[in-house]
Amino acid sequence: MSIEYIEAKEFIGGNLQQVWQKILSENEHVGQADTFHQEYEDYKAKHRAPYSQIIFPEVRQALADLKAAGLKLALASNTQKNDDLFALESASILSYFDIVLSREDVDSQKPQPDIYLKAAGLLGIDKADSLIIEGHL
Question: What are phi and psi of 99, to 5 degrees?
């Protein structure tokens, strides 16, 4: 079994459990997760997702407007930190974010609220004064 048939953009935004669910159909390959995980990491290294090409053009302007309005911005992601940073840097939007939190930064990933609560705390804002916008680059 190989993941070569899957385009890099298919891996954007999901956590690893969702990716494996897509790749491994109903426990057909139980026990091979380590092998698939390594193949996945190798694949990502060779086939970097084209974030600069797929980001909606309005995203940069929206982020610039939010920063100009004095708002604090955080990215809170289920993705691995190195993937988040690559995405933000290659899409030329990293500088808009005051903090970047990834799955490694919390004990419980989404849909648990831990990462959002940590982001609000690090930004120094009350959770009641925060707005969460979900989506992909």
Answer: -145, 155
Three-state DSSP state, 1: coil
Is 98 in contact with 72 (CB distance < 8 Å)? yes
Mean pLDDT score, 1-8: 64
Tell me the per-residue pLDDT of 30-67, one tens digit each, with 9 for 90 and over.
Answer: 567 677 778 878 888 888 888 888 888 899 999 999 99
DSSP per-residue codes, 18-54: HHHHHHS-TTTTTT-HHHHHHHHHHHHHHS---HHHH
pTM: 0.72
Number of neighbouring beta carbons within 10 Å of residue 107: 7
d(CA 28, CA 30): 6
The C-alpha atoms of residue 30 and residue 129 are separated, in whole angstroms, by 44
CB-based burial of residue 31 (10 Å sphere; 0-12 exposed, 13-18 middle, 19+ buried)? Answer: exposed
Per-residue tokens: 115: 């990462």
Residue at 62: amino acid letter: A
